[in-house]
Design brief:
The chain is α+β, with helices and mostly antiparallel strands. The protein has a single domain, classed as Alpha-Beta Complex (Cyclic Phosphodiesterase, Chain: A), CATH 3.90.1140.10. The chain has a four-stranded antiparallel sheet, with helices on one face. The longest helix is centred in the middle third of the chain and has 16 residues. It is globular and about 45 Å long. The N and C termini lie far apart (52 Å).
């Protein structure tokens, strides 16, 4: 039987050049764990889980209605949780990011999609099962965010791989 569902989420895909800078710095820390590959670096805005592929058109339509302003995201904190999750985060999430998450969530709920119960945490996962203690300081990574995207997650022999299905621009406000 053919699997007609996709594991979907809306996210900010990390620009490739910035992803390479972050991974190069992270690799220099020589921490043990399961690192996220550069192509998978992203900030999740809304996780949808398994969805019927027949709902893709609905998701694309509702995402096109979500308006948001482009913004600069400054990742300046390195956090390791007790469960071994290591991530970069902004000390102060930009208002435009929080507004985008709220508008997207409202559109998804209005479209009949179910959202996670936990509140949004602005973060870029670097590693899972990190066993070492990261340094107290980290460099600042500035990320110009100009769009958001719908991504699908596929699990393969090397782990998860994310594929961008479509992206939508954020408005430049000068």
């Amino acid at each position: 039987m053919k699997n007609d569902t996709l594991r979907l989420f809306f996210a900010l895909p990390c620009p490739p050049q910035l992803a390479e800078q972050i991974v190069s710095w992270h690799d220099s820390l020589q921490l043990k764990g399961r690192p996220v590959i550069p192509a998978n670096l992203h900030m999740t805005l809304a996780f949808l889980g398994q969805q019927p592929s027949s709902r893709l058109a609905d998701l694309r339509t509702l995402a096109a209605t979500v308006q948001g302003a482009a913004f600069e995201l400054r990742l300046d904190r390195l956090v390791r949780r007790r469960n071994g999750l290591l991530y970069l985060a902004p000390s102060q999430p930009p208002a435009a990011l929080l507004e985008l998450v709220e508008r997207l969530g409202e559109a998804l709920l209005a479209g009949g999609f179910r959202l996670e119960e936990r509140s949004f945490l602005a973060h870029l996962t670097l590693m899972r099962s990190c066993s070492g203690q990261p340094p107290p300081d980290c460099p600042t990574f500035d990320w110009p965010v100009s769009h958001f995207a719908l991504l699908a997650s596929e699990t393969g022999p090397q782990g998860s791989v994310y594929h961008q299905l479509q992206q939508w621009p954020l408005l430049r406000i000068d």
